[in-house]
TrEMBL record:
One term of GO molecular function: ATP binding
InterPro entries attached to this UniProt entry: Carboh/pur_kinase_PfkB_CS, PfkB_Carbo_kinase, PfkB_dom, Ribo/fructo_kinase, Ribokinase-like
Name of the protein: fructokinase
Residues annotated as domain Carbohydrate kinase PfkB: 26-334
Gene Ontology biological-process annotations: fructose metabolic process
GO CC annotation: cytosol
Record EC number: 2.7.1.4
Known pathway: Glycan biosynthesis; starch biosynthesis
Top-level taxon of the source organism: Eukaryota
Native species: Artemisia annua (Sweet wormwood)
Family annotation (Pfam families): PfkB
Keyword entries, A-Z: ATP-binding, Carbohydrate metabolism, Kinase, Nucleotide-binding, Transferase
Length: 345
């Protein structure tokens, strides 16, 4: 059995090579849930119709951490899993993918979260979650690896960790530590409505940290949900209802169509990279990995539209590559694969 990762202590930079020090200064820390996805081995069927399921590691923040590492960046994951075989498997997967997992914690009472996901014939995804409660919901503020958070150049999170206590308080405390340490706060909404008590609770919870984020990524459906406006393509809706004074970069993922971007100075759209899709799981997380992997080494990216568009083209290619394979983490691309597809596009 895998040994549990130990809590990370403070780092003495004098003990590391220049390359190691640079990696630490460019660290992206991803906070939130990591779980096991069960996906039908045959696509185009509902969960009820599926007879065989394949297990795959999942959880948006963990996907992003692996994506950044695959692209040659430095990443860490903070979250909680069960003190069970699935929990150790997930810790191992992070380690195999060169993600710092010292911020992971193992709960003795609750199990690692499970999610059953199917892609129906109409292209809609169907979710069934088993977390009542699951270990990720039980991370406590006292269990946070504070030194790891303080090293983050970018601190990335979603909204699922804001649903339940004590994880919500741990999430808010981690954000506060990161903000005070000078980290860029990156927020991918990642709406999973069945996990929230109600639609109103989801909107309130998602918006509760909105004004603190420096970078926000949403989907078109999430714009509609958060604003109540039928047309998510309306720039005025985004600028009036969702863009806030502290925001440096607002991104809207549009699937195969590409993405839109908004900053204080400019806005625009970058077209997607054409591929033949097999499984859309993890595409948004790969896109986020792509843009954060560039932003962490080019911190003023959102002030130069040409550089930003190049970075978003790279991020779109990351998302496109993921849909050509099954699963999220197994499909996360390398930098070489991204450059290869961009040459062909």
């Amino acid at each position: 059995m895998t040994e549990k990762p130990t809590s990370g202590g403070s780092k003495d930079f004098s003990l590391y090579s220049t390359k190691d020090q640079e990696a630490m200064k460019s660290l992206v820390v991803c906070f939130g849930e990591m779980l096991i996805d069960f996906v039908p081995s045959v696509s185009g069927v509902s969960l009820a119709e599926a007879s065989v399921f394949e297990k795959a590691p999942g959880g948006a923040p963990a996907n992003v951490a692996v994506g950044i590492s695959r692209l040659g960046g430095s990443s860490a994951f903070i979250g909680k899993v069960g003190d069970d075989q699935f929990g150790y498997m997930l810790a191992d997967i992070l380690k195999e993918n060169k993600v710092n997992n010292s911020g992971m914690r193992f709960d003795h009472k609750a199990r690692t979260a499970l999610a059953f996901i199917s892609l129906k014939s109409d292209g809609e995804r169907e979710f069934l979650f088993f977390r009542n409660p699951s270990a990720d919901m039980l991370l406590q503020e006292s269990e946070l690896d504070v030194n790891l958070i303080k090293q983050a150049k970018i601190f990335h999170f979603g909204s699922i960790s804001l649903i339940n206590e004590p994880c919500k308080s741990a999430h808010l405390a981690a954000m506060a530590i990161a903000k005070k340490s000078g980290s860029i706060l990156s927020y991918d909404v990642n709406l999973r409505l069945p996990l929230w008590p109600s639609e109103d609770a989801a909107r309130e919870g998602i918006m509760s940290v909105w004004d603190q984020a420096d970078v926000i990524k949403v989907s078109e459906d999430e714009i509609t949900f958060l604003t109540g406006v039928d047309n998510p393509n309306d720039d005025n809706v985004v600028l009036k209802k969702l863009f806030h004074p502290n925001l440096k970069l607002f991104l809207v993922s549009e699937g195969s169509k590409g993405c839109r971007y908004y900053t204080k100075k400019f806005k625009g759209r970058v077209p997607g990279v054409k591929v033949k899709p097999i499984d859309t799981t993890g595409a948004g997380d790969a896109f986020v990995s792509g843009i954060l992997s560039v932003l962490v080494s080019d911190i003023n990216l959102y002030e130069d539209e040409k550089r930003l568009r190049e970075a978003l083209n790279f991020a779109n290619a990351c998302g496109a590559l993921v849909v050509t394979k099954k699963g999220a983490i197994p499909a996360m691309p390398t930098k070489e694969e991204v450059h290869q597809i961009l040459k062909q596009d």
